[in-house]
Design goal:
By secondary structure, the chain is α+β, with helices and mostly antiparallel strands. It has one domain: Ribbon (Umud Fragment, subunit A). It has four helices and eleven strands; from the N terminus they run αββαβαββββββαββ.
């Protein structure tokens, strides 16, 4: 084999291996991201940089209450009154990719895939009630120190406000309750749709550290 061709092939192999390893690390271990919306204000602000821990997805670990998570956005984000089913308050995921290439593009490369970042509020088997501007878990008012003073939690229009979180699901909301499309509108998130937990904020530097 021509030495130059051999060297070129070796470089190509190295690049392919590096890309594959990077994709595997990004999918199974962790990845950086940029906050793009205001739904988690004041905890998170637009353009802040976060490091996401995807090992929790790899190990299928249920997040804890209060943890900030990212998850695949449901395909159906709102319901009519006749569609609300408090006996089965699970977000709907339709329009799934069907072949290997589209699955790889969607789930691994994340092309055309939308994700939300919200805070875990309730866990499987817990009774959630949203009333009088507050959140109640199993009949007890939830202490939410991360909310801005004066913020009320309600369900504007049609949504889920009195239900039990199904098995292997979580109920999550944004801290900026008046400007957050979350589980109140589309239902609880199945564990397999949770992509990561927020590990640290690394930008801006003066706010470096864990996010509460």
């Amino acid at each position: 084999m021509n030495p130059k061709l051999k060297e070129a092939l070796e470089w190509i192999y190295c690049i392919i291996i590096a890309v594959v390893l990077a994709l595997l690390f990004r999918y199974y271990i962790g990845t950086p991201t940029i906050v793009q919306q205001v739904s988690m204000y004041p905890t998170l602000e637009q353009d802040q940089r976060l490091w996401l821990n995807r090992w929790t997805r790899t190990t299928k670990k249920m997040p804890e209450r209060g943890q900030i998570i990212t998850f695949e956005a449901p395909s159906k984000k709102s319901y009519s009154a006749s569609e609300i089913n408090n006996e089965n308050p699970v977000a709907r995921y339709e329009n799934e990719p069907t072949n290997i290439f589209s699955k790889f593009t969607y789930y691994v490369l994340e092309i055309g895939k939308d994700s939300y970042i919200k805070r875990t509020i309730a866990l499987p088997g817990e009774h959630v009630e949203i009333k009088d501007g507050k959140v109640y878990i199993n009949g007890e008012q939830l202490d939410e120190p991360y909310l801005q003073p004066g913020i009320v939690t309600d369900v504007s229009g049609v949504g889920f406000s009195d239900f039990v979180v199904p098995e292997n699901c979580v109920f999550a909301m944004g801290d900026n309750r008046n400007h957050s499309t979350d589980c109140r509108a589309f239902g609880c998130i199945p564990l397999e749709r949770i992509e990561s937990t927020v590990a640290i904020r690394f930008w801006p530097l003066d706010k470096w550290g864990e996010v509460d």
